[in-house]
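I have a small job for you when you get a moment. Can you supply me with one protein entry, sequence and fold together? It will help me judge whether the discrete encoding reads sensibly. Write everything out right here, beneath this request:
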Amino acid sequence: MSEIPAFKLPNFEVLGLLGRGGMASVWKARQVSLDRYVAVKILSSSFATDPDDIQRFREEARAAAQLKHPGIVQVYDANFSDGVYYFVMELVDGYTLGDLLRRKGQVSEEDSLIVAESVAVAMDYAWTHYQMVHCDIKPDNIMADADGTVKVTDLGLSRSVTLLASERKSQSDEILGTPAYMSPEQVYGSDKLDCRSDIYELGATLYHMITGRMLFQGKSDDEMLRCHVGNEQAPDPRGIAKDLGTPFALLLEKLTAKDPDNRHRDWKLVLADLNRVREGRPPWPALPPAFGSSIKLDR
């Protein structure tokens, strides 16, 4: 964390770099007025700076700040200062599941069930109370803190970040999400996304955790998008994770149904099926073989 930031933010003492991605960097900082340590996410300097964009960014991020749940990384504030967009968030002493996968390669079925349940409980809260959709559930947006508590990060922020980025392109090019995990309806650019899109992304994330491979590993981003909406299917996870039980594999198949009407219609039904799988029972109802999924099970 020795990198020196190339920016200054009012009321924050930036202490060091925590991580960097394609669209943002995350820094540890001390919020001087409250004398507390926080994480500050700095967005790319190439994002749009139109006054309407800035206002929309603040409104959407502050809507995310309403979310108060132990399974969600708390957003405190968002602002635009001296050409810099930034979010102020809860500082989590821990690691992302992306970090874990890069270090270990795979996650056990038991631990994957724990993660899935934690994410589903948090997302059920966000959907039930605020009708909020994440649009970017993936291993790098799921954290585990020092106590082992699983937390969803960037909830409520993905849409505002993507909208800012899309101002550099035509509005028709706007796609929410990360290609490896996106639901078909996200690929199509639907403006009526609901919790079922996030449920697909959780399925894609769990497949990656269990197998150590993304659904369409080795494809380019554009090819991945075509695979999600087309007839392509990822191989049976039981052929990669040899100890994986059939109930879990059937759950993955259902979570990643290409038609949202064939997935769980809400998070409570996901939680019910997670309990069934934990007991060694298949999801109910299982996805009929005739219906398309992004995962092919060998029957």
